[in-house]
Amino acid sequence: MGAISFAASGTKGDFTLDIGFDVPADRVSVLFGPSGCGKTTVLRCIAGLEKLNGHVIVAGRAWQDDASSVFLPPHQRHAGYVFQEASLFQHLCVADNLEYGRKRRRPAHDNGLSVAEMAAMLDIAHLLDRKPGYLSGGERQRVAIGRALLSSPQLLLLDEPFTGLDRRIKKEIIERFLDIRKRLGIPALYVSHDMAEVAALADEMILMADGRKVSQGSPAEIFERVELQPATGRFEAGSLVVARVLAHDERYGLSRLELAGQAMFLPGVDAAVGEEVRLRIRARDVSLALTRPGDISIRNILVGQITEIVGEPDTAFAETVVDLGDVRIRARITRMAVDELRLAAGSKVHALIKSVSFDRRV
Amino acid sequence: MPDLTSDATGAAIWLTLQLALVTMVCLLLVGTPIAWWLARSKSRFRDAAAAVVALPLILPPTVLGFYLLIVLGPSGPGGWIAGFAGARTLAFTFEGLVIGSVVYSLPFVVQPIRNAFEAFGERPLEVASTLGASPWNAFFTVALPLARPGFVTAAILGFAHTIGEFGVVLMIGGNIPGETRVLSVAIYDLVENGNWAAAHWLSVGLVVFSFLVIVAMFMVGRNKDEA
């Protein structure tokens, strides 16, 4: 079915938004950018909670189209919206919160899910008769996601719904959410400024800054590009790569993976042998050496060639891109090291990777 | 205490309760849309409108009563409306008292409801709309239930404040037994006539009643915190 096409321009207070993008209909697309860059306003425009000039086309239907003066009010759009704060109805118990969306489905695209099924999938069945005031943050967000999904939306909008949750809980909820979304086959647009969330969620990524779209593409493409760094952020900057699980070593609790034909060792990756997983390698966790160091505790030493070095005159650092074969990773090293090792584009190097986070099965 | 059990006193108590009840219902019906508009509107007339609603708080009841008398009287719109029912005026009638009481107690009803509407903000209504609820549907299924404590407070205040009304009633209702002679006026009469014992009984009754009302309101407030 048709993709989602969006454009909006206009001014809200002293903030100006001017953005347009198309995203595929069967994916999780992430709007990524620093706080205050207008991500939330984009979601609100799509849901119809905010009105700027432009258009919103979802599954071939115009929710807003200035050219033909169409502007559907939010309740006729059926976009499931999960807000940053769970925003459950305080006067209703969990079951009635879930029921609120289910009762108002439109028959045309009823996903057929019952409250009980949704509660089971999100593991909230034991909470059904509780009031929202007696739930933990993670439980509340699970109910909010369930409530939105039960309204049989044609598009799911999520505004940093997992912010402030414990990392382990966050990971679990994200996995459950991805499973259900895949099953229902509805597109999702997710707002985030957290690199780890992008790594775990995104199929497609739209990079935003100051109310504009800076770039769009797969997360791996976006994060690889050094010139986008001001928008992607320095501290968490890094690469997303896909590796394949080769074996699990029970004795050491390590998994052996293959990345661009080279071997890596990661602590217990939760995936079966042969499966592909997405890994996130932060640029600041990668060091470079001209020769393969011996007598070193680091297990992951990959051979590659520098393709790009960008020094940052205002800091001590330089961003480098290392080609490992058919994948590229980034390393953040000092400018002093660049000069002393005489690194330049084309230099053969060994990339020493201090830590890798495993984000999702592909 | 002969006067307390007399027909005249009984009629005054009964009339007062009727007036307070009818007024309370009218207040909730009139006050809710006003409170909603004051809570949600971005109009530049909002503060002016809020001030008009709050005026009865500080105006002397005689001033309010004086203008109500003109409006409800034979040459005002009240007299015109009364003409349809074959009467000459709304002043000095039960209906006139209800109208006067509604105006007089309006701020006591509008303010708590407005506060309750403002307290939960836009978010619950936005959530309801994205889940497919029309604005009216969201108002009845989300806004009203969430504002319930505000409505309970408003109802109690509106009812109690009408029972304690004196000045406005005297100006527009006079002192017609069984028609406009409410408790506060009856007590005034008893004192004027030197029947202090009966005045005491009725006054103590009102004190106890008012105390219970305020206790009830505190209890409502506490329940809200626990929910």
In brief:
By secondary structure, chain A is of the alpha+beta class. Chain A contains nine helices and 21 strands.
Can you lay out the helices and strands and say which pair or pack?
The complex is a heterodimer of chains A (362) and B (227).
Chain A: E1 4-12, E2 15-23, E3 28-32, H1 39-47, E4 53-58, E5 61-65, E6 70-71, E7 79-82, H2 94-103, H3 115-121, H4 137-150, E8 155-159, H5 167-184, E9 188-192, H6 195-201, E10 204-209, E11 212-217, H7 219-224, H8 229-232, E12 238-249, E13 254-259, E14 262-267, E15 276-282, E16 286-289, E17 300-311, E18 317-323, E19 328-334, H9 335-340, E20 348-353, E21 357-361
Parallel strand pairs in A: 3-9, 3-10, 7-8, 8-9
Antiparallel strand pairs in A: 1-2, 1-4, 4-5, 5-6, 10-11, 12-13, 12-15, 13-14, 15-21, 16-20, 17-18, 17-20, 18-19
Helix pairs in contact in A: 2-4
Chain B: H1 2-5, H2 7-40, H3 46-54, H4 61-72, H5 77-84, H6 94-119, H7 123-130, H8 135-146, H9 148-163, H10 167-173, H11 183-192, H12 196-226
Helix pairs in contact in B: 2-6, 2-9, 4-10, 6-9, 6-10, 7-8, 9-12, 11-12
How is this structure best described in words?
The complex is a heterodimer of chains A (362) and B (227). Chain A is α+β, with helices and mostly antiparallel strands and 362 residues long. Chain A is built from 9 helices and 21 strands. Chain A has helices spanning 39-47, 94-103, 115-121, 137-150, 167-184, 195-201, 219-224, 229-232, 335-340; strands at residues 4-12, 15-23, 28-32, 53-58, 61-65, 70-71, 79-82, 155-159, 188-192, 204-209, 212-217, 238-249, 254-259, 262-267, 276-282, 286-289, 300-311, 317-323, 328-334, 348-353, 357-361. In chain A, the strands form 4 sheets. A 6-stranded mixed beta sheet of chain A has the order 7-8-9-3-10-11, sandwiched between helices. Chain A has a 5-stranded antiparallel beta sheet with strand order 2-1-4-5-6, with helices on one face. Chain B is mostly helical. Chain B is globular, with a radius of gyration of 20 Å. The chains are: A alpha+beta (362), B mainly alpha (227). Chain A binds chain B through residues 47-49, 73-75, 77-81, 83, 85, 87, 89-92, 100-101, 104-106, 131, 133, 147-148, 151, and chain B through 120, 123-124, 126-135, 137-138, 141-142, 145-146, 148, 227.
